[in-house]
Design goal:
- This protein is α/β, with parallel strands linked by helices.
- It folds into 2 domains: 8-143 and 265-308, 3-Layer(aba) Sandwich (Rossmann fold), CATH 3.40.50; 145-261, 3-Layer(aba) Sandwich (Rossmann fold), CATH 3.40.50.
- It has helices at residues 21-34, 45-50, 84-95, 108-120, 145-166, 181-189, 204-216, 235-245, 267-286, 305-308, 317-326, and strands spanning 8-13, 38-42, 54-57, 102-106, 125-129, 169-174, 194-196, 222-227, 251-255, 291-296, 299-304.
- The longest helix has 22 residues, at 145-166.
- The radius of gyration is 22 Å and the shape is elongated.
Length: 328
């Protein structure tokens, strides 16, 4: 790794979009400008780095974006970046501009790319956890998670009104292909009777028994929140199974989908994104390189990228116990 002082940095967003990414971009650009750095934006993640879609940014470039969802830099997943030829081309495009520091805002796959790139070339990378799934170890929150959960809670609250009006059982699918945090938090916050997540084995027979018992007690309004990556399947599979086993129940399935990724970021997401973006630039300047910037117990935590891509945020047994008790 070159010991050359970082004086030109690039920022990009990669993988799935998450509310708060714009706040992070804004913080990186303005902190960089404050310190006299030249700051560049890379469009469409690693694809833009390969295609030389790189432009210089200043404070005005990020005016009036902190409240916007999505990402002004666009985002994408890049297969080409995981080839030696793709990374070499990306490196050459950065090198000709003299860029010697990168801030990558994204999730696990984005960090794997940054780790590989920084190990091969003399450009340090800093990762900011931008993913609604909150599945990255090393930070209590990820950029976008709070907004996504609040979006899900608002939608589920509205669905409960209809469930109550018609005495229905609703199966609501939320996002979370490999992680159940959105399902867990939104399910607890909305008083769901059952929460199905990838991290916990789904006992469908026990679920049917519990619903049958509640039907006998004349409890006809039930909400089941399902993470899309639950081992039994998503909302449609769970709904079809329950319709077969509970033919007298009025069952509906609602899939919230990508609505959870959009919208203005919450106050918390704006704050943590701004704080992380500021510290990302500070890390590049003080020599703390190739780390993911996270926040644990309201303190900054710097996790080496090598570790960040190997570890997953795990759901504690306490949360699973809370779900079981409160849903009874």
């Amino acid at each position: 790794m070159s010991a050359k002082k970082v004086n030109k940095i690039a920022v990009l967003t990669s993988g799935g979009d998450a509310p708060g990414m714009n706040a992070a971009i804004r913080a990186v650009v303005r902190t960089g400008v404050y310190h006299g750095l030249e700051v560049f934006g890379v469009t469409r993640g690693y694809n833009g780095m390969i295609d030389d879609d790189i432009f210089e940014m200043d404070s005005k470039s990020v005016a009036n974006i902190i409240q916007r969802g999505g990402t002004i830099l666009k985002t994408a997943r890049s297969k080409d970046f995981f080839t030696p030829e793709g990374r070499q081309k990306a490196y050459e495009n950065l090198k000709k501009r003299g860029i010697n520091g990168i801030v990558v805002i994204g999730g696990d796959g984005s960090f794997k790319g940054a780790q590989k790139f920084s190990n091969e070339f003399d450009i340090p990378c800093i990762g900011l956890p931008g993913t609604i799934d909150k599945d990255i170890a090393g930070s209590d929150f990820t950029i976008g998670f709070d907004t996504a959960v609040n979006t899900a809670v608002e939608a589920i609250d509205k669905i409960r009104d209809t469930a109550d009006a018609h005495d229905r059982l609703f199966v609501v699918e939320v996002m979370g292909r490999d992680a159940g945090y959105i399902a867990l938090h939104s399910g607890i916050a909305t008083g769901a009777e059952n929460i199905l997540i990838p991290e916990s084995k789904t006992d469908m027979e026990a679920l049917v028994s519990a619903l049958t018992e509640k039907e006998k007690r004349k409890k006809l309004v039930n909400l089941i929140v399902v993470a899309e990556g639950d081992e039994f399947g998503g909302g449609n599979q769970v709904g079809d199974f329950l319709k077969q086993r509970l033919p007298n129940a009025d069952i509906r399935v609602c899939i919230l989908g990508h609505i959870q990724r959009g919208g203005a970021p919450s106050c918390l997401d704006r704050l943590i994104a701004s704080r992380m973006g500021y510290h990302a630039v500070e890390c590049l300047l003080n020599g703390t390189h190739n780390v993911m910037v996270g926040i644990e117990d309201n303190k900054m935590k710097y996790t080496p990228l090598d570790n960040a891509v190997k570890a997953k945020q795990k759901i504690s047994e306490e949360w699973l116990k809370i779900v079981k008790i409160l849903a009874s």
